[in-house]
Amino acid sequence: MPQQETADSNITYHTFDVLIVGAGGAGMRAAIEAGADAKVGVISKLFPTRSHTGAAQGGMAAALANVEEDSWEWHTFDTVKGGDYLVDQDAAEILAKESVQAVIDLENMGLPFNRTPEGKIDQRRFGGHTRDHGKAPVRRSCYAADRTGHMILQTLYQNCVKLGIDFYNEFYVLDLVMNDGKPAGVVAYELATGDIHVFSSKSIVFATGGFGKIYKTTSNAHTLTGDGVAIAFRRGIPLEDMEFYQFHPTGLAGLGILLSEAARGEGGILRNASGERFMERYAPTIKDLAPRDMVARAMANEVREGRGAGPNKDYVLLDLTHLEPAVIDAKLPDITEFARTYLGVEPYTEPVPVFPTAHYAMGGIPTNIKAEVLSDNDTVIPGLYAAGECACVSVHGANRLGTNSLLDINVFGKRAGQYSVEYAKTAKQVPMPANAADDVIAMIEKVRKSKGKEKIAQLRKELQDSMDKNAQVFRTEETLQEAIEKIQELRGRYENIAIQDQGKRFNTDLLEAIELGFLLDLAEVTVVACRERRESRGAHLREDYPDRDDKKFMVHSMVYQQDKVQKKTGTNMKIGWKPVVVTNYQPMERKY
Amino acid sequence: MMSVIIETPAKPRTRKQANLEKYGWLFMRISGPLLVVLVFTHLVVNLVVGDGIKAIDFAFVAGKWADPFWQVWDLAMLWLALIHGTNGMRTIVNDYTEKTKVRLALGTTLWAVCGLLILLGTLVIFTFDPCPAGANPDLLASFCPAQ
Amino acid sequence: MANAAAPVIDSFTVTLIIRRFNPEVDSEPKWVDYDVEMYGTDRVLDALHKIKWEQDGSLTFRRSCAHGVCGSDAMRINGRNRLACKTLIKDLDISQPIYVEPIKGLPVEKDLIVDMNPFYQAYKDINPFLIASDKPTKERLQSPEDRARYDDTTKCILCAACTTSCPVFWTDGQYFGPAAIVNAHRFIFDSRDEGAELRIDILNDKEGVWRCRTTFNCTEACPRGIEVTKAIAEVKQAILRGRA
Amino acid sequence: MAIRPAGTLYRGKVGMWSWVLHRISGVGIFFFLLVHVLDTALVRVSPEAYNIVIESYKTPVVGLAELGLVGAILFHGLNGLRVIAIDFWSKGTKYQAIMFWIVIAITVLAVAAFTPLHLARVFSH
Ligand SMILES: Cc1cc2nc3c(=O)[nH]c(=O)nc-3n(C[C@H](O)[C@H](O)[C@H](O)COP(=O)(O)OP(=O)(O)OC[C@H]3O[C@@H](n4cnc5c(N)ncnc54)[C@H](O)[C@@H]3O)c2cc1C
Ligand code: HEM
Ligand code: SF4
Ligand code: F3S
Ligand code: FES
User: Is the complex ipTM higher than 0.90?
Assistant: First the structure.
């Protein structure tokens, strides 16, 4: 039941112990953890099962050792190495250690994992996951056909229904209210009515997911506009490692729809126009199962050097034709259907055209291993938590391994739930300022009343085109400069937008404009961080600085918003650096 | 027969009353195959073999009902078809009525009619006299003494 | 073969006729025509976006993933329920206008957006979560055969294409609807679940499985290819026989 | 531009149309049955009364209607068996469309075979 205390004009007030923003995997996992012990509310701009966690296909890593020998140490090592040593190793250890329980939790909640003949959870191979520190690929990914994310999302929602968690669906959180540097709550916009809601809460968990929509070719949903990340940034919270954005090797060419790495885990092979298995040249040992940054780069390189397939030589081919149709049907039904539906290609008999697609943000809101949000390198903001793709713990470093994100949302989602409820038990509610909603109301009214000439969609398209052109797999000082200038131009034009829908009900026109504002912010932070990191590491490839530079850059970047334009960045952003936590593994060259 | 468009469900579902839907559903499926045998044979005997519809008259009926086999046959058909049909009509009424009162009224009417007809039909079959006294002998079956 | 991704079909113009309704200004729904230029790989969702982004920003519909996995954009396209993001324009008859209207039987909120709450309520009513009394410390075991038993119905994305294609649901909106039954099936036939009896009891309701008249609209509408009518038949049998 | 209906007719496939036909035929048969029980009951009144009414069944117009009735009963009965197969046979849902066409085929053939026979009798009466 909604906690409705007072309602003046069109503002409704609510109070909770723990408030979770976002009902994807991370948000709902936190809600389940906190739900039994406290008054928990979950706000989501989508109905929970529409969250993009449901799009995840391949699996969730955990060293269960159900099918072959495995250990959490190996998993930690793979995660660190996969992340090009920019991973905080204390966090990676937690991720790997708690993975087993995370999978068991899900199974116990009812998740229908695929099973081994003995009835245990089955596991399969995935890129970058190896036995004994890189000796051979290992079967570590727990999966439910190729809809693991779907099953996680459904199972978590089912358990939220079971617990009777309070959901506010199709509510857009547009602001985080801070009082004297402490979080008091959030302000949300109700899509159905256009009403404003102010939520006070002792602890607040951000779990708003990624922001792949800064790019044009992306596996991400239209709704992944990074709202939570941008809101935090606007409220003075720095963003960590934003230059590391992962491009997934196998997006359907031209569309960006993802074909899971599971396709290669089950034996799929990448080939160039002449049919060559080119990954043999780039990663002789694990070939097509090398980490994503390496595969994406290899693919982009093949195309660039003229070995691409197709009339425009602009993609490579994912070959599944040597797999048994029965195996494809049992293990990869959905993704092969994507190829059929969207490209008209029959994967049983034809190779599928693929090209890298923007996929996953390694960076985001900085947190520690208790999922507490940091306001600088190590100062905790009490009561504020973040988990999932919007957060940066950092377990993914410069490049996330496949299946580690579904794991991340479960492990750190659970932790966010635990620690936030623990905090809420003793903490006092930070008083909600009287005019808490003013900023949001002003922002909405400004957008609603804008009678300019610029079309939102046009600005967004120009932003995405520029990001694809200038800040995708390959980057240089020049392209990044171009991107910054473009973003600043777009910011200017954003002041002059036109909104056609003036109504209150379901005004998605208005919200798309607001979301574009978030995208502009995040694109700019990304590009600034890209420019400042003058080395190549993981997913971040600077052609003008092609080598990894551990002396200067074995650090996380931290971008802060400033009031005034900074000389160094040419924007109103300041960059700082944060040391990487190293426990066991010293940086080495990455070879696979 | 396409249904009306209703944009709004009339009322939230009222949960969980004891109900006989399962039995109604089963009855439709048990009576169905029986009716296939009963009705299809009935059609063949009355409309196809011999002179078909031309041959049907009082004497024809009398001839059939003189045999207890056909008495039981028609009795079974009467009961099953009426209950089956009425229950089917009830389903349809439930689909297209929204007000409980209307639903109840129509339902009651249906079952009342069904009951009356079953009663009437049963009485007719059992009290039927194939050779009513004083009737025009031309109209009676050949086995009647009056002929 | 491999050139499938290249634009095989050049651009063409199609007319979309969309049933629009904004209760803030309209007294009743109206049909509005839009001409849009599309390409071979475009889907109906792309056409709707194009209209919203270039012609009329007030056109309102739900969408998120754009590739048929989130279940946001079920709508009636040329008379049948489908996901806009999974319906390629070139697969429709483009010599004719394409009719787009909201799914039927749920209250229309605005344009193509309907109030999904009655639908979600039916889902919640069947207790859509694992009910098990044991407290395992490890994973529960389940044989691949037992796992396969309910695989089909785990695919549901709650898009409501099935329920709102059902003629029985259209009549009075009281019927639980195929989606709720599909989700009950997912648990009734899960060997780990102990709540079958409870769910069976719920679906033995007046508005439960017995209202299904096997019209198969649900099966044909399901974008996930779930054999919905079959699942319903299996639940009916489970009720008759007292358990799966 | 042609007038457009409030909402378009749902374009269901054979499953939906078979149900529409089943429903219409069921209702038709039901009302016929009501009448049929009453007219048969006239045998209890008098042979004359019964024969007068039964004569009207043999007129051309009613004779034609009887063809429709027979068709409706055949369709309803056979489709009823199809529905039962869908409910009780595990492969029923898979073959429902084929079964529908079989039902239609048998109904059409049977009515086609019966029509000349019946009409000859009706018109020779
Ligand atoms: C196609 C695809 C396949 C993938 N496959 C895999 C895989 O196989 N293995 C793996 O480990 N990872 C995979 N990933 C990555 C992984 O799925 C995601 O990183 C992860 O699911 C993110 O979960 P989340 O809970 O952080 O965010 P999401 O699931 O994206 O949820 C975000 C939530 O925040 C809400 N929200 C956002 N903004 C607001 C706002 N302003 N107000 C209120 N609510 C808001 C949304 O409504 C939503 O509920 C894949 C990703 C994609 C795109
Ligand atoms: C000849 C053999 C018959 C068979 C095999 C048969 C079978 C069936 C079946 C299985 C149903 C249930 C349909 C469903 O649940 O979807 C049904 C419904 C129905 N039957 Fe019959 N039936 C027969 C004869 C009759 C007769 C003689 C009548 C009329 C008195 C009749 C009237 C109805 C009606 C009105 C319905 C309801 C239709 C609906 O709900 O759409 N049936 N029949
Ligand atoms: S069963 Fe199919 S059509 Fe129905 S809600 Fe689920 S996915 Fe959608
Ligand atoms: S459309 Fe409806 S009638 Fe049954 S087969 Fe599907 S639920
Ligand atoms: S937008 Fe997600 S299913 Fe169509």
Answer: yes
Q: Does ligand 2 have an atom closer than 6 angstroms to the CB of D28?
A: no
Express each pLDDT in A293-326 by its tens digit: 999 999 999 999 999 999 999 999 999 999 999 9
Strands (E), A367-525: 372-374, 380-386, 391-392, 454-455, 474-475, 497-498
pTM for the whole structure: 0.94
Which chains, if any, share at least 3 CB pairs under 8 A with chain D?
B, C
Q: Is A304 a catalytic residue?
A: no
Domain that holds residue D60: 14-122
The tally of domains found in chain D comes to 1
Question: In terms of domains, do C72 and C121 share one?
Answer: no
Q: Which residue of C has its CA nearest to B4?
A: C171
Residues C97, C137, single domain; the answer is no
Q: Write the CATH number for D50.
A: 1.20.1300.10
Query: Does residue D4 form part of some domain?
Result: no
Looking from the CA of residue C153, the nearest atom of ligand 3 is: 1
**Does D42 reside within a domain?**
yes
Establish if D8 belongs to a structural domain: no
**Nearest-by-CA chain A residue for C45:** A222
Which residue out of D1, D3, D9, D11 would a mutagenesis test of the C interface target, given it has the greatest number of C Cβ atoms within 10 Å?
D11
Q: Which of C114, C141, C158 is the last residue of a domain?
A: C114
Instruction: Give the count of alpha carbons within 13 A of A358, CB side only.
Output: 26
H helices present in A471-506, as ranges: 477-494
C9 has pLDDT over 60: no
How far, in Å, are A185, B75, B122, C56, D39 from residue B119 at the CA level?
A: 73, 11, 5, 67, 15
Strand, coil or helix: what is C79?
coil
Question: What's phi and psi for A64, nearest 5 deg?
Answer: -70, -25
Closest of C155, C226, C142 to residue A113, by C-alpha: C142
Residue A516 CA to residue A505 CA, distance in Å, equals 20
DSSP chain D: -PPPPSSPPP---HHHHHHHHHHHHHHHHHHHHHHHHHHHHGGGT-HHHHHHHHHHTTSHHHHHHHHHHHHHHHHHHHHHHHHHHHHHSTTTTTTHHHHHHHHHHHHHHHHHHHHHHHHHHHHH-
Residue D99 — φ and ψ, nearest 5°?
-60, -35
Q: What is the DSSP letter of A535?
A: S
pLDDT tens, per residue, chain A with 592 residues = 344 444 446 799 999 999 999 999 999 999 999 988 899 999 999 999 999 999 998 899 999 999 999 999 999 999 999 999 999 999 999 999 999 999 999 999 999 999 999 999 999 998 899 999 999 999 999 999 989 999 999 999 999 999 999 999 999 999 999 999 999 999 999 999 999 999 999 999 999 999 999 999 999 999 999 999 999 999 999 999 999 999 999 999 989 999 988 899 899 999 999 999 999 999 998 899 888 899 999 999 999 999 999 999 999 999 999 999 999 998 888 889 999 999 999 999 999 999 999 999 999 999 999 999 999 999 999 999 999 999 999 999 999 999 999 999 999 999 999 999 999 999 999 999 999 999 999 999 999 988 899 999 999 999 999 999 999 999 999 999 999 999 999 999 999 999 999 999 999 999 999 999 999 999 999 999 999 999 999 999 999 999 999 999 999 999 999 999 998 888 999 999 999 999 999 998 888 8
3-state secondary structure of A171: strand
Nearest residue, CB atoms, B53 vs list D41, D44, D58: D58
DSSP codes, A33-45: HHHTTS-EEEEES
The C-alpha R_g of chain C, in whole angstroms, comes to 20
Domains of chain B: 23-130 (1.20.1300.10)
Distances (CA, A) of A448 to A12, A165, A191: 21, 33, 14
User: Which residues of C fall within a CB distance of 8 Å from D13?
Assistant: 216-217, 220
- CB count within 10 Å of CB B101 equals 8
